[in-house]
Design a protein that fits this description.
The structure is a single chain. The protein is mainly β. The chain has a single domain, classed as OB fold (Dihydrolipoamide Acetyltransferase, E2P), CATH 2.40.50.180. It is built from three helices and ten strands, in the order αβββββαβββββα. It has a five-stranded mixed sheet with strand order 8-1-2-10-9. A five-stranded mixed sheet has the order 3-6-7-5-4. The longest helix has 7 residues. It starts with a helix and ends in a 9-residue tail after the last helix.
Length: 174
């Protein structure tokens, strides 16, 4: 194969357009997922990886919603079951159960934690003005974890605050 023939096949910038591809020019993107029958979302820029469910290594004396840890390319990643953390029904692990690994960088450190969810749904494009404040009425998800709500068709998607999700709470050993 001639190198010049290969070079001639490489498109020049602006020469070709990608039809049918919807490029995002404004707004935010969120990864949506299911917990029970409810849809939730997290900032897609914090999503490191989506992994299939695997039993993590248990950590003695950890809260029940901490399922354990996994080794992800040399990084020890705690695994939190969001359904158990928020008391949303019983945690059942099946073929659609996945772990969404989220990474948040702060000035002090980078924290990576995996969150068990029932299934990943979609990527949601949202304009900032479409996000409504979450009402304060004492639902199953504490107010501190909520960034807001957004209407998507007939459904309401709850947007979770990734930094608050990753805050490590003090645990009392019984």
């Amino acid at each position: 194969m001639d190198i010049q023939m290969l070079a001639d096949e490489v498109p020049v910038e602006g020469e070709h357009s990608l039809e049918g591809v919807d490029f995002i020019t404004s707004g935010e993107q969120y990864l949506t997922f299911l917990l029970s029958d409810e849809q939730y979302a997290v900032d897609i820029l914090c999503v490191e990886e989506i992994r299939s469910w695997e039993n993590p290594t248990r950590i003695p004396n950890s809260p029940s919603y901490i399922k354990g840890v996994i080794n992800m390319r040399g990084i020890i990643v705690p695994i939190v079951d969001l359904r158990m953390k928020f008391n949303i029904g019983e945690a059942i692990y099946c073929d659609t159960t996945v772990v969404i690994v989220l990474t948040v960088e702060t000035e002090e450190k980078t924290r990576t934690i995996g969150f068990v969810v029932d299934a990943v749904s979609d990527v949601l494009n949202v304009e900032e003005n479409e996000i409504k404040p979450a009402p304060v009425f004492g639902g199953c998800v504490p107010q501190a974890y909520l960034d807001g709500l957004v209407n998507v068709g007939e459904k309401v998607v709850t947007i979770l605050n990734v930094k608050t999700l990753q805050a490590v709470e003090k645990h009392q050993i019984n």
